[in-house]
Amino acid sequence: MDSQQGRDLVVVAASAGGVEPLRALVARLPPSLPAAVLVVLHVASSGSSALAGILDRSGPLKAAPAEDGLPLVRGEVRVAVADHHLLVYDEHQRVSRGPRYNGYRPAADLLFMSSAVAAGPRVAGVVLSGTLDDGARGCELVERHGGVVAVQDPEECAFPGMPSAALRASDRAHVLPASRLAEWIVDQTRSPVIAEESMPDDELLRDLARYLTPRLPSTPPEGELSGFTCPDCSGPLYTRPGNPEPRYDCRVGHSWSMDTMIAGQADAVERALWVAVLRLEERGRLLRRMIHSAERLGHRMSVARLAEEADQTREALETIRVMQSRLGTQDDVAGA
């Protein structure tokens, strides 16, 4: 059993609508904060690392992009870079381009999960505005390992999906407005905790291993074949129990909650529909060219047959465009 100390690792997750509350949080943290702060914000894979500069100008703490292998530093904010996961291992930052998790890279769950393993009760997790449920499993594991969780009040969030999902997965999360989250963090750094020896979580360690040392797994994931395919790679998905709902893992390493898999499937269907639109448009152009050629040659029967096919192709194209316009987006799923 270790000596008592305050919580010295703060992990923060945000997505859509989360930049402003994140800025407000960082602006209120004191310059002498005795904790390292790690941040994951969902951004496009081609996005920039502008968030670190924004947070650096927002408050007294130094903020910078995460760097693989650097130690955690108290009083410093490190931000996950685009298209890279941010994890914690042996009191160091780890930056990884391992498989997407919940359809995201960076993923909030991986930061929270690895922090729970690395620092146990020394972790304070915060979930801000965002869609779907990335971070929910991480919050449950932070609490299971003795840490604490707070979420931005869903009533004030632009997108309440992430904090609401965290509340469903959590046993005792605090619900606070963004303006009070920094105060809560400071209180956690002053609240003594006792780090006790705990049994290793083998399943969680296996989950994290593929991100800390990325490689193609040599054996299938644990669980039973679900009958579904991965929205990212189309490989078979294996299902295993989760809290509160099952998770789905593919052999490559993509991992999905039920909500994020539904959203991922919607994206995959939309991509397939756009491919169908492209092919049908090409077919329509080819048929029109063949009709003109047949008309020049005086082949009236061919013209009639090709015109009928062109009409059918146009009707199919219109149908698929209507289907594509009605397909739910991630925000639609999150608000359901």
Explain what this protein looks like in three dimensions.
With 336 residues, the chain is of the alpha/beta class. It contains ten helices and 13 strands. The longest helix is centred in the last third of the chain and has 40 residues.
Provide a concise account of the structure shown:
The chain is an alpha/beta fold and about 325 residues long. The chain is about 45% helix and about 20% strand. It has helices at about 20-30, 50-60, 110-120, 135-145, 160-170, 180-190, 200-210, 260-295, 300-325, 330-335; strands spanning about 10-15, 35-40, 60-65, 75-80, 85-90, 90-95, 125, 150, 175, 225-230, 235-240, 245-250, 255.
Percent helix, as a range, is: 40-55%
Give the strand order, joined by hyphens, for the main sheet. Answer: 3-4-2-1-7-8-9
CATH topology of the largest domain: Rossmann fold
From the spread of the alpha carbons, the general shape counts as: elongated
Write the element-wise H/E pattern from the N-terminal end onward.
Answer: EHEHEEEEHEHEHEHHEEEEHHH
Radius of gyration: 24 Å
What share of residues are in beta strands? Answer: 15-25%
Question: Could you name the key traits of this structure?
Answer:
single chain; 336 residues; alpha/beta; Rossmann fold; 3 domains; seven-stranded parallel beta sheet; four-stranded antiparallel beta sheet; 18% strand; disordered C terminus
